[in-house]
Amino acid sequence: MEYEILIKANLKQHKGGFIGIFILILLISSALSMVLSVWRNSEYYIKSEMERTGFGEITAWVSEVSDEKELIGEIEALNEIERAEIQSLIFSNYRIKEQESDSEGQLITFQSQENRYRFFTDDLLAYREEELEIMPREIYVSPSMISMFGAEIGDEIIFPIVRGGKNMVFTIKGFYEDPFMGSSMIEMKGFLICETDRNEILSLLEDAGIDALARDGAMIHIFTEADSEITIAELNTMINEKTLLPEYAEFVHSKEAIKGFMLILQNAFSGLLLAFVIVLLFVTIVVISHNIGSTIEADTVNMGILKTIGFTAGKLRGIQLMQYLLLMIAGIFFGVFLAIPLSGLVIQATITTTGVRIPIRLWGLGCGVAFAAIIILFVVFILWRTGEINTITPMKAIRKERNKLGIFFEKRISVLGGGLYFRLAFRQLMTGKRRYIGAGIVAIFLVFFASLVGRMNSWLGADGKGMMDAFNPADHDIGVQVFGNLTTEEAEDMVRSYSDITDTYLLAMQGVAVNGIDYTANVISEPERFHILEGRSCMADNEIVLTEFVAADLDVAIGDMVMVRGDKGMEEYVVSGIYSCANDMGDNVGMSREGYLKIGYDNPSIWCWHYFLSDPSKKGDIMEALETAYGGDIHVHENSWSGLYGIIAAMKVLMIFMYGIVFVFILIITVMTGSKILSAEQKDFGIYKAIGFRSEKLRMIFALRFGMVAVIGAGIGVILAEIFTDLLVSTVMKFAGISNFMSVLSISNVLMSAGVVILLFMGFSYFASGKIEKLDMTILMEE
Amino acid sequence: MKKVLMSGKNVCKSFSQNGGSVQVLNHIDVDIYKGDFTVIMGASGAGKSTFLYALSGMDSMTEGKVEYKGKEISNFDEKRMAKLRAEEFGFVFQQTHLVSNLTLFENVAVTGFVKGTRNTKEVRERAMKLLCQMHVKNAKDRLPSQVSGGEAQRAAIARAMMNSPGLIFADEPTGALNRSNSEEVIHLLSQINEKGQSILMVTHDIRAAIHGNRILYLEDGKIFDELELPNYGEDDIRARESKVNDWLVSLQW
């Protein structure tokens, strides 16, 4: 009973601080539940949907297979293979809203009886219930086409099938969920069409001969036996060595690799949000610490009195612990419920980027474990922090010894001289510095994280150049690939009519097997252009460079030998260096043109000419002119990627969310700290008013104190961000295959993060100091 | 002929208490003269401090108006009131009320900067001079918590004097001091009054009150009576004390 009475009294007396802490825990709880649930559900959903829709351990994309049955039989005859299934498709480039695709689209024939795909309602808020039939010239696309190309229902997509303008034009009828290629992080895209249209395309191709632009192909889904322990690398090697698949394969991906592509965004941003929640957790600990300190300070006399009537320090600490536990449990409880609609909002907002509708349900186990850990952390901290209650003796408390504010500094900076208000603020800050430690630490944490995200944003750049540099094996302004009768010289002449070409090189992306495992080889005519991280580039024709991910997978280092197989033959190469290229999540290698031609056939159509322009601003005009003039005979791309816009948009959402939370946290900490300081110093404010200070000036001085604390905190936060950003972000980026993340300290990201935090501290403290205006000066009266 | 420095007209102040209203100041009319050392006395709870705070603008009135040097100040906004406090008024409180984290010297000098018309050197010199006059020069670099109550109160008087105010308001300036410190503080107030400084002081201490040349007696929220005295030092102190004492006895104090 005594606990109930005292806890109720405490909660009533210190309700401001407790409400603040409740809100902080509520925010942490909802953000954490949301992040964990979205992360877990994404992982689980993609995996289960890939299984449901029939994707095997490995999927090979093949074209021009002479005898599909024979190939399937060959694969199924292998040990450890349970079965192989074929799904027909047509490879073709496409154009939508005047934008050329960078990768070929895959026109997949929809068969309603398969029940393989799910279709969204037009508003993307749910799945369609009714059975769907695709009519001729209708096409269904992934919702990620919205973020990649701005696609809408009713838009036309043009697929050039045969030279001479024999195109197939489809109208977008709706959106479907593609758990395999649906994310905007994956350039290759699947399109659902009807059998009639497929047959029409095939008949066009049959008569086209060398003028064909599209290709008949298929996906071969390869399933291993249930009890098989074969690794993906071993499976890949076995299939490559014992079947004819390499002759027909355009590319091969494992289920795990595709799942990785599909989850890049969710995992990267869940990781960042989780890191932010951890930062907020520390901020909340700081706030609780501050609140415990000031509560003990305010209640010292009461605690002394309670001790005189028989309360032990242990009991008093127990009361403190129980009241915070109550707050925590309430905050976590309501936060978890809030997480459900929040998750729904996030999933709905990101469906045009992720391409899938992640189920909205809480991950009970994960959240439970996380919250149990958080509660244990808080309990241990609160027990430690309330330790000073042990030192309170009744007499000390009644004499209010603890309340005497120590002024420890002897070498004071005089308040006299220029900048009186600044000097006074500094003196007040130094006098009560203990009270501002909490605000200072909060500033450090928040600026650190804001600065970290700011630096990532700067690295990404407004046009995503940072990301593109990470994905591209070498820099360029535009790339031009010519087909058919069109010559490179003709294309170059058109480029020069807009801008001089300052430099050029050739790049081809060819499938190879390194030590039996399939990778994409970036083959370049000027290997010195590779972004080398370690060692040197592959200058000789028996050298190769690997990403650090491939080197780790193959367990090789610089100087080791690897066996590389191409479509012509097999040779041994020495690893000359480690380079960075995040394509295929880092699963790629780099070779010189001479090196590749030892094992691969040369063909003019495999080479893409990469140009540097004297006037890069003409890129758009050049691309439009080339596409208009040569249509299906040319493929033009710039140093960009349509999936990038999804990342840039997600980064913007993250920034808005982060600054929103920063806003709330600073508001709470400032109001909590400020009200306690105002209450402790109201007599001083009365004195200042009595000698002629105006309230407005006193409020300004008050805000200046918080400004100074924030400046110090922000300075430390920026330094910490300088030290730790690259280390921490690189760890997250490696999940996306990016190994060369390097941020720079720029005025804009420092000003943005530190400036916002400093201004918020000052603004909110000025707002919180409104009580000074209303301060009754009779407080100085002793009657 | 004395010149009116401040006048209160129909000054009323009431507080709400337990659902009702308590009238603390009840339609008081008063003039405070330039150069006078005016003392307000009265029984405990008579509203002495409330009256002082109402006249000085530190507290609002329920009714009435206050004029200072012929200008009504009771309708001043915060900005004009702050200017008036900085330039024309000085305050000495019972509990000294020095800013706890400023040294005695800084407490005095800051007041000089608020006025804003003097340069740093002038302010420093003036503050030092006043601290010397108040005999606290040696403690000037100490914080209020590091000096005795008497030293702190003398520094508070120096602070009140800093901007050469037209009127010093003193609310029980000796109320928290021991006898020797009280005498020293009241002696200093007398000295500055001799030099022409107008003072309005609330006290319940006869030894302090006899330093005034005019004593107002407050009872039931009204000025019940007043006593005029020669300037302090112009007559016999014992006779003066006896006169004040007799007067107070007659008022059943």
Rounded mean pLDDT score of chain B: 90
Cα distance, first to last residue of chain A? 39 Å
Q: Widest sheet of chain A: strand order?
A: 10-5-2-11-1-12
List unreliable stretches of 5+ residues of chain A.
Answer: 402-410
Give the chain pair forming the largest contact, with residue counts. A-B, 36 and 44 residues
Total helical elements of chain A? 23
Q: Shape of chain B, please?
A: globular
The proportion of residues forming helix of chain A, as a percent range, comes to 40-55%
Class computed from helices, strands and strand pairing of chain B: alpha/beta
Helix content of chain B: 25-40%
Description:
The complex is a heterodimer of chains A (783) and B (253). With 783 residues, chain A is an alpha+beta fold. Chain A has 3 domains: 58-254, no CATH class; 421-464 and 641-783, no CATH class; 473-638, Cathepsin D, subunit A, domain 1 (Beta Barrel), CATH 2.40.70. In chain A, the strands form 3 sheets. Chain A has a 6-stranded mixed beta sheet. In chain A, strands 3, 4, 6, 7, 8 and 9 form a 6-stranded mixed beta sheet that branches. In chain A, strands 14-15-20-17-19-18 form a 6-stranded mixed beta barrel. The longest helix of chain A has 54 residues, at 255-308. Chain A is elongated, with a radius of gyration of 32 Å. Chain B is globular, with a radius of gyration of 18 Å. Chain B has helices at 48-56, 78-87, 104-115, 120-133, 149-161, 179-194, 206-209, 237-250, and strands at 4-17, 20-33, 37-42, 63-68, 71-72, 89-92, 167-171, 198-202, 214-219, 222-228. Chain B has a domain at 89-164. In chain B, strands 6-7-8-3-9-10 form a 6-stranded mixed beta sheet, sandwiched between helices. With 253 residues, chain B is an alpha/beta fold. The mean pLDDT of chain B is 90. The interface between A and B is large, with 36 and 44 residues.
